[in-house]
């Protein structure tokens, strides 16, 4: 019997990979399932982006291997985007590495920096991939708890009290998924100071900056941040291009070149047409963001009504592609979402998949049309 590697015993198949099989089985057996689980944008990318990929298909070099560092024009467009939206200057030649979605960056960064036995600070609740990748590379997750009472921001006093001697890397993600918490005025400065004090590399995973958020911010806008911080960003949610797989890691050249060492040994450059489309997306005018958010605003109003009908509470100041809602006291998230799936045929994500601090919460995705959301409200009323 051929055994899988020991590291596979440290992780399970991704929650959505499993749960969506169950949901799809219900759909194929004729149940009228409304899926408010995953954050996969259903809206179209900008038209000029679609045109660019179509044109890209016909370019003479389109089918060849592409550069490991992406097209120079793509790195220029990323630098322009960071300057325009975050007032952060990046060198297109040395401080930007395009990725096939930001998710792969979590593995590349972990492979580039973590030795077996190193510790990694991970938010609870937080994106599950931080934890699973940490385990896959043989490092040890150390969770820092986020709490509604502190607006889901890190508690620096509690962080300082942890044993940080083995901590090499810290994942942060503001605007935060799943809670939608925004960074306050001081957060990124406090994080940079914390990283410098303890010699920790902080990575801010920043894919939700442009969704229902008035003030997009980058951790790299803090003076001196590049020494100790990296940022991941993504076109998945901002431009409805989740399936295209385009993201980036940005930061100081010493870090980017370490990550390139891993990535260039694992894959080859992104498809030419996708890069051409991404360039167009990154150049979109303000109108794109206004139009996108006007759709999400209407949807969020409807999701709030749905949450009201389910007797949940939520923070109207939260940002992002989801509504994070608190269940009435004493109700367990997984049992609750299973009962809503069974009785109302609505799939909602239980907060527990993001960690123990997600118990008692559920997460609704805004990736469903107004009509679908109105139908969901009707079903639960
Ligand atoms: C917090 C967070 N980081 C990263 C990702 C991955 O995004 P991408 O599509 O860029 O790989 C997601 C996707 O859901 C996410 O929620």
Oligomer: single chain
Calculate Rg over CA atoms: 21 Å
Question: With helices defined by DSSP (H or I, 4 residues minimum), what is the helix count?
Answer: 12
For CATH, the homologous superfamily of the largest domain is named as: Type I PLP-dependent aspartate aminotransferase-like (Major domain)
The CATH architecture of the largest domain can be given as 3-Layer(aba) Sandwich
Order of strands across the widest beta sheet? 2-8-7-6-5-3-4
Distance between the termini: 53 Å
Low-confidence stretches: none
Average pLDDT reading:
96
| Share in β-strands | 15-25%
Tell me about the largest β-sheet.
7 strands, mixed
Enzyme class: transferase
Domain Aminotransferase class I/classII large: 32-380
Cofactor: pyridoxal 5'-phosphate
Organism: Flavivirga aquimarina
Provide a descriptive summary of the structure in words:
- The chain has twelve helices and twelve strands.
- With 381 residues, the chain is an alpha/beta fold.
- The protein has two domains: 6-44 and 286-380, Aspartate Aminotransferase, domain 1, CATH 3.90.1150.10; 47-282, Aspartate Aminotransferase, domain 2 (3-Layer(aba) Sandwich), CATH 3.40.640.10.
- Strands 2-8-7-6-5-3-4 form a seven-stranded mixed β-sheet, with helices on both faces. Strands 1-11-12-10-9 form a five-stranded mixed β-sheet, sandwiched between helices.
- Strand 5, helix 7 and strand 6 (201-205) form a beta-alpha-beta unit.
- Helix 4 (102-113) crosses helix 8.
- The longest helix has 24 residues, at 286-309.
- The protein is globular, with a radius of gyration of 21 Å.
- The termini are far apart.
- 46% of the residues are buried.
- The model has no long low-confidence stretch (mean pLDDT 96).
- Residues 39, 101-103, 127, 173, 177, 205, 207, 234, 236, 242, 247 line the site of pyridoxal-5'-phosphate (PLP).
- Residues 39, 101-103, 127, 173, 177, 205, 207, 234, 236, 242, 247 line the site of pyridoxal-5'-phosphate.
- Its cofactor is pyridoxal 5'-phosphate.
């Amino acid at each position: 019997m051929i055994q899988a590697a020991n590291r596979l015993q440290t992780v399970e198949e991704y929650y959505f990979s499993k749960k969506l099989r169950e949901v799809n089985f219900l759909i194929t057996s004729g149940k009228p399932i409304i899926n408010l689980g995953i954050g996969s944008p259903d809206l179209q990318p900008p038209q000029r982006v679609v045109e660019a990929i179509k044109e890209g298909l016909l370019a003479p070099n389109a089918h060849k291997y592409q550069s490991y560092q992406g097209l120079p024009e793509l790195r220029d467009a990323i630098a322009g985007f960071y300057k325009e939206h975050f007032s952060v200057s990046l060198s297109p030649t040395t401080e930007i590495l395009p990725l096939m979605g930001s998710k792969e960056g979590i593995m590349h960064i972990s492979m580039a920096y973590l030795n077996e036995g190193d510790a990694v600070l991970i938010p609870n609740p937080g994106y599950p991939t931080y934890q699973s990748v940490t385990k896959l590379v043989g490092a040890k997750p150390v969770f820092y708890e986020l709490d509604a009472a502190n607006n889901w921001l890190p508690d620096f006093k509690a962080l300082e009290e942890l044993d940080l001697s083995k901590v090499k890397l810290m994942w942060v993600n503001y605007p935060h998924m799943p809670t939608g918490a925004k960074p306050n005025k001081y957060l990124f400065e406090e994080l940079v100071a914390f990283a410098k004090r303890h010699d920790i590399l902080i990575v801010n995973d920043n894919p939700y900056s442009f969704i229902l958020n008035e003030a997009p911010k980058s951790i790299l806008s803090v003076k001196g941040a590049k020494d100790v911080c990296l940022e991941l960003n993504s076109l998945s949610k901002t431009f409805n291009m989740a399936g295209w797989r385009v993201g980036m890691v940005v930061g100081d050249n010493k870090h980017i070149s370490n990550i390139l060492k891993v990535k260039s040994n694992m894959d080859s450059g992104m498809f030419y047409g996708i890069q051409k489309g991404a360039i167009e997306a990154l150049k979109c005018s303000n109108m794109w963001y206004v139009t996108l958010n006007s759709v999400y605003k209407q949807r969020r109003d409807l999701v709030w009504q749905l949450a009201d009908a389910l007797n949940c509470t939520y923070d109207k100041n939260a940002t992002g592609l989801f509504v994070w809602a608190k269940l009435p006291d004493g109700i367990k998230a997984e049992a609750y979402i299973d009962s809503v799936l069974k009785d109302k045929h609505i799939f909602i994500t239980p907060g527990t998949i993001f960690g123990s601090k997600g118990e008692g919460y559920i997460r609704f995705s805004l990736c469903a049309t107004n009509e679908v959301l109105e139908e969901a409200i009707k079903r639960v009323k």
